[in-house]
Amino acid sequence: MAQRPRRLGIMGGTFDPIHHGHLVAASEVAQHFGLDEVVFVPTGQPYQKRQASPSEHRYLMTVVATASNPRFRVSRADIDRSGPTYTIDTLRDMRDAHPDAELFFITGADAFASIVEWKDADELWELAHFVAVTRPGHEMEATDYPPERVSRLEIPALAISSTDCRARVRAGYPVWYLVPDGVVQYISKHDLYRRDTA
Ligand SMILES: Nc1ncnc2c1ncn2[C@@H]1O[C@H](COP(=O)(O)OP(=O)(O)OP(=O)(O)O)[C@@H](O)[C@H]1O
Ligand SMILES: O=C(O)c1ccc[n+]([C@@H]2O[C@H](COP(=O)([O-])O)[C@@H](O)[C@H]2O)c1
């Protein structure tokens, strides 16, 4: 019997810090689309965002957060590439590394809303199927994309953002249960976000 191609999810993000909203999004997409693996890809320099924390911290928090799931792994592809991070490069690297796999790029509704402004947007659709998951407070706005290459997936609503987690740490509020326990400990051990400005 012919084997179906391997299905690989790609969860890109700044992950500053990674939180349960990211993990639930990846898990739900994996279940719904029968993904064999989800690769979390922390961004190098997210050119549209404020100054992010050093990439090594964001990478290690992502490793800690995903360690318990055998179908999750973390890639250094974006943090090891110099210059700003563009998804077109992430997808080209993934396609080169896994030429026979079907790629599924996972985003939240907010990130997906601006996708037509991303670098080489017209080519993105050729490299991957895009899955935009619902996110509380963010409508999935209409944008100019090929409908056969995009799916919208309703997931359990978790009103968690990295911005809010950073603000809570700065204000001395707990982030227990918003981020995985190991990430709480990592933030504390490395004294992250105490002097953050965003
Ligand atoms: N609570 C959530 N539910 C669904 N998707 C989410 C959620 N949080 C983040 N995402 C999606 O995960 C991806 C990576 O998000 P990112 O690392 O920028 O986190 P963030 O919480 O949006 O960060 P920030 O608050 O700093 O903007 C994006 O596609 C984003 O839309
Ligand atoms: O390629 C682009 O131009 C582009 C512009 C904005 C965001 N992205 C990607 O979208 C993902 C989520 O980004 P962010 O900034 O919401 O953490 C991450 O993988 C980014 O590299 C990509």
UniProtKB/TrEMBL annotation:
The keyword Nucleotidyltransferase applies. Pfam families: CTP_transf_like. Keywords: ATP-binding, NAD, Nucleotide-binding, Nucleotidyltransferase, Pyridine nucleotide biosynthesis, Transferase. GO terms for molecular function: nucleotidyltransferase activity. It catalyses: nicotinate beta-D-ribonucleotide + ATP + H(+) = deamido-NAD(+) + diphosphate. Its EC number is 2.7.7.18. Residues 10-168 form the Cytidyltransferase-like domain. Pathway: Cofactor biosynthesis; NAD(+) biosynthesis; deamido-NAD(+) from nicotinate D-ribonucleotide: step 1/1. InterPro entries: Cyt_trans-like, NadD/NMNAT, Rossmann-like_a/b/a_fold. Catalyzes the reversible adenylation of nicotinate mononucleotide (NaMN) to nicotinic acid adenine dinucleotide (NaAD). Belongs to the NadD family. This is Probable nicotinate-nucleotide adenylyltransferase. It comes from Agrococcus terreus. The lineage of its organism: Bacteria, Bacillati, Actinomycetota, Actinomycetes, Micrococcales.
